[in-house]
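During the reporting period, we have paired protein sequences with backbone structure tokens. One record among many follows, to show the layout:
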Amino acid sequence: MTSHDDKSPIKNRIGGVFIPVRNLEKAKEWYRKILGLEGGEEYFGHLFVVPMKGTAGLILDSMPKWRNEDGDISTYQVPSIQLLTDDIEASYQFMKENNVELVTEIQDNFYFVFKDIDGNLLMICKEAS
């Protein structure tokens, strides 16, 4: 344990969120449509970084170094990323209209879980006021 006077060189800030994707081009199209994303830049042939509010950006990564011997990658099997909305019902309906795979219905009038095109579990939550 460090004393109060010791300062960590690691910042108390998230620089980005990585999401493993199987096909970068398909993932870019899907996330742009679902989250209304604009812009973004591709790096190193496997990363696509899109600026977002709250973090430095959402990073879609085909993760070539993390694939198994069959060339596949693991997906998030628990909702590890929370996206915010002001209108949970409209967000849920939007996902249904766009044929997004919904894992739960709206829970506690506050959140629901869905899968992206790679099977990653993500969550939409009503922003606390």
Observations:
- Residues 29 and 105 are 25 Å apart (CA to CA).
- DSSP finds two helices and eight strands in the chain.
- The domain at 74-129 is CATH 3.10.180.10 (2,3-Dihydroxybiphenyl 1,2-Dioxygenase; domain 1).
